[in-house]
Hints:
- The complex is a heterodimer of chains A (612) and B (198).
- Chain A has 612 residues and is an alpha+beta fold.
- Chain A has helices spanning 43-55, 72-77, 79-87, 111-122, 438-453, 458-470, 474-487, 492-504, 508-521, 526-538, 542-555, 560-572, 576-589, 594-610, and strands spanning 8-12, 150-153, 158-160, 167-174, 181-189, 196-204, 220-221, 225-229, 239-241, 256-258, 263-270, 277-279, 282-288, 297-302, 308-309, 316-323, 328-336, 341-349, 355-361, 372-380, 385-392, 409-410, 421-428.
- With 198 residues, chain B is α+β, with helices and mostly antiparallel strands.
Amino acid sequence: MTSSVRTIFACLLGFSSATAAAFPKQEATRSEPLTPAPKQVTFNRDIAPVVFHYCAPCHHPGEAGPFPLLTYRDARARAREIARVTSTRFMPPWLPEPQESDFADELRLSDEQIALIQKWVQQGAIEGAAADLPPAPQFAAGWQIGRPDKIIEAEKPYTLPASGSDMYWNFIFRAPVDTTRWVKAIEIRPGDKRVVHHANVLVDRDQSVRRQENEPGAGFPGMELKIASETFDPDSHFFFWKPGTVLKPEPEGMALRLDKNTDLVLNIHLQPSGKPEKVQPSLGLYFTDKPASLFPVLLQMENDQQLDIPPGEKHYVVTDQFTLPVAVDVLAIYPHAHYLGKDLQALAALPDGSRKTLIHIPQWDLNWQAVYRYQEPVPLPKGTTITMRFVYDNSSDNVANPSDPPRRVVAGNRASDEMAHLWLQVLPHALPGVATDPRMLLQEAMARHNVNKNPADFEAHYNLAAMLLARGAQEGAIEQFDEAVRLRPEDATANNALGAALLAVGRSSEAIPYLTAAIKAQPADFDAHYNLANALASQGKFLEAIEHYRASVRLHPDDANAEANLGSALAEIGNLREAKLHFERALEIDPNHELARENLEQIHHASKDVKP
Amino acid sequence: MLHSSFSSRPRATLLLSASTMLLLLLTSPLFWAGQKTALHLDGTPADPFLENPGKPLVLLFVRTDCPISNRYAPLIQHISTQYGEKAGFWLVYPSETATAERIRQHQRDYGYKLPALRDPWHVLVAQAQVQATPEAAVFTADHHLLYHGRIDNLYRDFGHARPAATTHELDEAIQAALFGKAPPSNQPGVGCFITNVQ
């Protein structure tokens, strides 16, 4: 009847905003003087195919583009702007350089296409022959892949002020399921797309984030989120929206498990439009009957502790290196920095000596951050070293610099702080002949890497301990929890976890001081009361145990284990009448609760035995 | 009576004093018919120079469908309120297609309280020498163009906005017009081009 309660800290996909570093200088595109008679460029023949493919997906009514680009008339009215924003590669927004491993849905104009647009505008934006015009693009009205199985809308809208700096808002949606379902796609409808820069859904299995709401359902501000999980259950999916996103279901076999009492947290980056805007997003969930058979993992590389950027520094480099303990297929990649990020790249050095660029963004622009999916999975063998290398510009030349004049910048969750994160969605290969879940090997290796990288990192020790505990390496887990408590002696979660781990190996007397410390730090901590009650009960201190079981039941009136254990402790001191009530209550909560049923039967037998 | 300092303005008729103009109107009722002018939202000819005699004039060029000029709406409204009656403030919509009703709706949506003009033939655009929305033009009380260009330096280019502006050209230009200070140098605005094909 021992419960080991643990929490895994995951710094999840913070999304921030900002504008990017130095504006890329583009060479002016001019008609070649040596060309005697430059071809006349027309909209219908030459420009419409480009505009329809690259621009119209966002520039049509209801989408993020502030004006439509569906006809010659539309394009002519914006001709100079189109020439300008394409020549600087501001539009269409696509940050990565071309590379060997192509990304899906790449929106990058070729140099030739850009030159063609310039020439078209210089020549007077001619319409051309009607026969040359390709069919206008057709866009799905409403939900992109048909009506979702479930639609959930944010409980309350958020009103974005008319002016001010960018805003990050989090909406919390309770998963609309009574039983576990498998999700193959989530369409994010972020509200008014003209004010939303990007949006991202995070899975909060333990509803750890909703306590940040001042008012239930109202959401809360914040650029970065930290989600705590009680079990080893790594989030494995990116659910990301940016303007122009084409919704694609998860690959076959990779559905997301969605349990009852799970929260979906939508983190949205908003930019004021000049008038107050009500934003009330909704999510469309598409289910499948096929449970997941493939389990990708989100690997987070980071080196925030290296971030200590002096004011004026134009080329500050932050790196992290991780060697894969198992072979993986890389499915998607998401680099993340805030406003000082300049040049972001990730490289893979394979054991055979070859190298692959996983991503290279030479002009980072937080406003257009995105998750990039590979056209084909990128295989990386065991022993491959992945290097993250981010360069930051904290000078006044960086127009996005939030500080004027520049100031020293370190890591943090605010927009004026920095981050150095690289997320990789990988599908680990199972090791031949090894039963261990390869995800656990990956996560444990990453946790150990983080501990080695930063021995003073509380969360690194905590997470490594949780990984070790998950695969039954209890003594190793106790060492790491102990280190976490040493780093934060008053942390309720760490004290509780260490106490629970000690309790799990039968060291209940050692567990009691840590569990007591956890309650002192957080008197309403259900887990700590429950674990302490168990520790006391295991030592025969039933009266004290009953006190903490009662506290547990007060805090979580619907916890069948707490009710059943309270009943057991009461029975131990001979209070069978009250014990019976708690066993009955446990069975009311969970009719299949074995301990409660057995104990209740014993009480019945005992009462029969007593009767003549 | 002609004022030589007005010679940069294309319409000589506007250089006349109010009383002379009234006389011309009386004696030549068809004068406006062939003349392209800015328009009030009710469709009548408008000349903001004549409607704000003796005061500096601030023209703010915006569009209903330009996201960057819309983002400036709170600041434009704030500045026009801040200076109140000390200068004449006008929103100018240089679009050929935006209707008066659409402009009225735009004003309601964005909380604009200052008067608006349509400038479909770009008469005021030419006088103010502006290229894009949002841009501002500040004229002295004697109608001399003191400054034209960006409102501030929030945007360095499309998509490249500072967290907050660090220079405030429009405010400086108004101060210059009111108190005889040196105006800022003209700086092009970032936004939607007023004339799209040249």
